[in-house]
Specification:
With about 130 residues, the protein is an alpha/beta fold. About 50% of the residues lie in helices and about 15% in strands. The protein has six helices and three strands, in the order αβααβαβαα. Helix 4 links the parallel strand 2 and strand 3.
Length: about 130
C-alpha cells in the first residue's frame, strides 16, 4: 500500500512503532517535538509497523497515543500488528489509554485481517525450493 501510495504521488512515512517511540522521546528531550509532530501530520500516509513486538511503559504509551492522535480523523495511518485489539494492553499496560487509542484508530477505519505466510516466509520457501 505504501509503494502504491508513493507511485501515485503521495508522501509516505514508514517506521516501526518502537522506532517512532524512540524518535518522539528524543525529539521531546531535544525540544524539537513540535517539528516532529508537524512532519508527522503532513505526510499523506503514515505506516507504523510492528506494533506488538516490543512492550512499552506508561510514558511511551502516552507519547505514542498523543502522536497517533494528531492524525486521527484527518489523514491515513496504517498500523500493522500481530495482536487483536483485546491484547494491546499486553503492550501498553494502561487499559484506558489502550481503549482510547483503539477508538481513535478504528474510527472511520478499514481493517484488514491478513492470514497465511508472511512475505518473508514466502521468500524463504521460494529460496529453499530453488536450491533443491
Amino acid at each position: 500500500l505504501g509503494i502504491e501510495a508513493c507511485s501515485n504521488g503521495m508522501t509516505v512515512m514508514f517506521t516501526s512503532v518502537p522506532r517512532l517511540i524512540t524518535q518522539i522521546k528524543e525529539a521531546r528531550q531535544e525540544r524539537t517535538l513540535r517539528n516532529l509532530e508537524n512532519r508527522f501530520i503532513n505526510y499523506d500516509l503514515v505506516i507504523c509497523d510492528e506494533f506488538g513486538y516490543v512492550s512499552c511503559n506508561k510514558e511511551a504509551g502516552e507519547l505514542l497515543f498523543n502522536h497517533l492522535s494528531l492524525r486521527a480523523g484527518k489523514k491515513s495511518i496504517i498500523i500493522t500488528t500481530n495482536l487483536a485489539f483485546n491484547r494491546w494492553n499486553e503492550i501498553i499496560a494502561d487499559k484506558v489509554l489502550v481503549t482510547a487509542m483503539v477508538d481513535r484508530l478504528t474510527h472511520l477505519a478499514m481493517m484488514i485481517n491478513m492470514t497465511g505466510d508472511s512475505f518473508r516466509m514466502k521468500e524463504t520457501k521460494k529460496l529453499i525450493s530453488q536450491s533443491v
